[in-house]
């Protein structure tokens, strides 16, 4: 839901910066790689130590590379299948690092098995939510549903909550509870989104099979 509005706004804001990088000879793929490396470093260096505020600051500085590289490609007129593949693949790596960092904290000094499991569920469900859409589109279905919690919502909820939770180390009382609440919201929202996409693919598949005049198959080809 956030994608439609947030992307349009930040695209306008980041266009001058993207143009500056182009003038400096930086390629969109380079921005993608550096941005992902920064997010992974911020998540896996700071989050497992409970440094949620500084980890979120570092991640936020790099997470906008996801918009900058696409903006650069459009300005250069060089949007490509390879660029789209690289961007999507590294998005999954960055997401995994963020929720993996949360899981490592709760598995270690955070000492909360339940929240560790919730963080792992957020990691796994986010990957599967993305896969359902990609897989549905790869077999020729439109997958015409966005879902309750997509990647933008997962990142905004978790990063904002983590950043504020980190203020507990600066003496703000009780604010550390924001992160567990956000993780539960992301977990439930991701599950709802997964169900929405599976139901949509099931319906679109049945409609496509009916339009082709043949019965729907019970199982697909080898994965």
TrEMBL record:
Keywords: Cell membrane, Lipid biosynthesis, Lipid metabolism, Magnesium, Membrane, Metal-binding, Phospholipid biosynthesis, Phospholipid metabolism, Transferase, Transmembrane, Transmembrane helix. It comes from the Bacteria. Mg(2+) 1 binds at residues 66, 69, 87. It holds the Pfam family CDP-OH_P_transf. The keyword rRNA processing does not apply. This is Phosphatidylinositol phosphate synthase. Mg(2+) 2 binds at residues 66, 87, 91. Contains a di-nuclear catalytic Mg(2+) center. Gene3D superfamilies: 1.20.120.1760. InterPro entries: CDP-OH_P_trans (IPR000462), CDP-OH_PTrfase_TM_dom (IPR043130), CDP_ALCOHOL_P_TRANSF_CS (IPR048254), PIP_synthase_PgsA1 (IPR044268). A CDP-1,2-diacyl-sn-glycerol binds at residues 29-32, 70, 74, 80. The lineage of its organism: Bacteria, Bacillati, Actinomycetota, Actinomycetes, Kitasatosporales. Catalyzes the conjugation of the 1'-hydroxyl group of D-myo-inositol-3-phosphate (also named L-myo-inositol-1-phosphate) with a lipid tail of cytidine diphosphate diacylglycerol (CDP-DAG), forming phosphatidylinositol phosphate (PIP) and CMP. PIP is a precursor of phosphatidylinositol (PI) which is an essential lipid required for cell wall formation. Homodimer. Signal peptide: none annotated. It catalyses: a CDP-1,2-diacyl-sn-glycerol + 1D-myo-inositol 3-phosphate = a 1,2-diacyl-sn-glycero-3-phospho-(1D-myo-inositol-3-phosphate) + CMP + H(+); 1,2-di-(9Z-octadecenoyl)-sn-glycero-3-cytidine-5'-diphosphate + 1D-myo-inositol 3-phosphate = 1,2-di-(9Z-octadecenoyl)-sn-glycero-3-phospho-(1D-myo-inositol-3-phosphate) + CMP + H(+). The keyword Transferase applies. The chain crosses the membrane at residues 178-195. The active site is at 91 (proton acceptor). Its main location: membrane. Its EC number is 2.7.8.-. Belongs to the CDP-alcohol phosphatidyltransferase class-I family.
């Amino acid at each position: 839901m956030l994608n439609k509005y947030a992307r349009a706004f930040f695209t306008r804001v980041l266009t001058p910066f993207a143009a500056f990088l182009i003038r400096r000879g930086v390629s969109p793929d380079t921005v993608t790689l550096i941005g992902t490396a920064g997010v992974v470093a911020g998540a896996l260096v700071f989050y497992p130590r409970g440094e949620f505020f500084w980890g979120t600051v570092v991640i936020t500085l790099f997470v906008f590379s996801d918009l900058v590289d696409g903006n650069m490609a459009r300005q250069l007129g060089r949007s490509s299948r390879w660029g789209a593949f690289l961007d999507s693949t590294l998005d999954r790596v960055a997401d995994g690092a963020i929720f993996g960092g949360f899981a490592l904290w709760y598995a270690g000094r955070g000492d909360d098995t339940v929240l560790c499991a919730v963080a792992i569920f957020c990691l796994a469900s986010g990957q599967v939510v993305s896969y359902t859409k990609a897989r549905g589109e790869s077999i020729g279905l439109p997958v015409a549903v966005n879902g309750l919690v997509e990647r933008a919502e997962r990142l905004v909820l978790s990063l904002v909550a983590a950043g504020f939770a980190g203020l507990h180390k600066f003496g703000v009382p009780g604010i550390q509870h924001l992160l567990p609440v956000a993780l539960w919201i992301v977990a439930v929202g991701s599950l709802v989104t997964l169900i929405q996409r599976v139901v949509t693919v099931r319906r679109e598949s049945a409609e496509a099979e009916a339009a082709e005049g043949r019965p729907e198959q019970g199982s697909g080809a080898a994965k």
